[in-house]
Amino acid sequence: MKIAISAAETSGDLIASALVKSLLECQPDCQIEGLVGDKMSDAGCHRLWHIDQANVMGLSEVVNKLPSLLRLRNSIVKYFSENKPDVFIGVDSPDFNFKIEQKLKKRGVKTVHFISPSVWAWRSNRIKKIKTSTDLMLCLFPFEVNFYEKHGQKALFVGHPLTEKLQPRENYKPSKKVLLMPGSREAEIKSLLPELLSAVKLMREQDSKIQFSLVLANDHFKGWVVERIDKLGIELSVGNAYEQIVTSDLVIVASGTATLEIAMLGVPMVVVYKLSGVSYQIVK
Description:
Blueprint: E1 2-7, H1 10-26, E2 31-36, H2 38-43, E3 46-50, H3 59-82, E4 87-91, H4 94-106, E5 110-114, H5 127-133, E6 136-139, H6 142-150, E7 155-157, E8 177-181, H7 186-206, E9 211-216, H8 222-229, E10 234-238, H9 241-245, E11 250-254, H10 257-264, E12 269-272, H11 277-283
Parallel strand pairs: 1-2, 1-4, 2-3, 4-5, 5-6, 6-7, 8-9, 8-11, 9-10, 11-12
GO molecular function, one term: lipid-A-disaccharide synthase activity
Protein name: lipid-A-disaccharide synthase
Keywords: Glycosyltransferase, Lipid A biosynthesis, Lipid biosynthesis, Lipid metabolism, Transferase
């Protein structure tokens, strides 16, 4: 069996890696390939394109990278039209993946979308696009299935993969440790880290005993981060977020999937987000 997959964001890479692992456990001879991240590769997925080619955030960032995003999407459609899989799975990123699913579905490829957009909360008219794009919607929450059934769209509740591995910590003893999580994308790291370091300075003025650590999802921008935190007494680690989170009193985290993970681990957090100047002016 051949499965095509597309995960365009770091959060999708994390969740899809659990899906890839389960699929290969059920079908060891299954071939899974496509637009993937490091965690999906580690789970056994063959990389045709790297997630970094599509991983952007904010209005201005998307606009700047739009030509390359469109080329990437067209390349994915072309490849899987010529090398048809048994099924195509789009993971989250609906604005990127639905167009791929729609074109492949018209060419006879079965399509699945994993992680429903919040059509039940806003922009419910998107159901029209969903119905022309995907044969099956895999939902994280049971109430989402009811919404799709009312609109004649086949859907299945599969639950959130993280609930199988993350449980609230117990018997935690405060240690005056604060964890910084500036995100995974280049734009958010370079935008948020200076703000986080300003917060470190202010908090140290209030309590000099606070210990700060910083964790990165990968080492792509480790060198840049090291230069900024050098001599600031901040411990840096890569790829061990869960271990760092459960041993922290507080996490200051970039808005995103990590907030759900921290909440599931039962750790207090402050969520931060910063728009680019251009994005701010557009929203304003």
